[in-house]
């Protein structure tokens, strides 16, 4: 379970368009946050990456294809790369993603008798003869801001600074990384913010 509360992010007053595909647009609640975030576009201009700190030890990495590139081919690009700090006005959808999957068949196919069925040795956690009947993996991700409604434009306060505007208003990938180890804690694909990933 991952809950991300973007510091200094505020909800825009009106829902914004999100382009689900070439024929479908939906109105979704969006967040806006301005700050210095790490950013990069690849040399061929097929995607952009923004890295946003979400705590003292975790990073939210957002990858959006440019000009209709395919999300499926972008997942390998989510590794933390050399990103450069930029002053950015970032706009992205509020998200709540929930899902669960039954891992029983997967683990059975891996033939792990020490974990499943009557061959499981669980004596270290109980004297009772325990068996594992079901293995369920549940995932929950929620992205919100810490403000309620958007105040005045925060970029107006820094008139001498040029902000790069990055708007995630079409399908994108996101990941949460532990900062020091660079271990990926969560990976998601957003194709329609109203339906989760």
Distance between the termini: 15 Å
Category by helix and strand content = mainly beta
Give the name of the CATH superfamily: Alpha-1-antitrypsin, domain 1
For the record, the count of structural domains works out to: 1
Counting DSSP H or I runs of 4 or more residues, the number of helices is 1
- Number of beta strands: 13
Helix/strand order? EEEEEEEEEHEEEE
How much of the polypeptide forms β-strand, as a percent range? over 45%
What's the CATH C level?
Mainly Beta
Q: Biggest β-sheet: count, sense, barrel?
A: 8 strands, mixed
Nearest-angstrom radius of gyration? 20 Å
CATH topology: Alpha-1-antitrypsin, domain 1
The CATH architecture category equals: Roll
Short description:
This protein is mainly beta and 197 residues long. It has one helix at residues 104-109, and strands at residues 2-6, 10-11, 16-21, 24-28, 30-41, 47-53, 58-65, 84-93, 95-102, 136-145, 164-167, 172-178, 184-190.
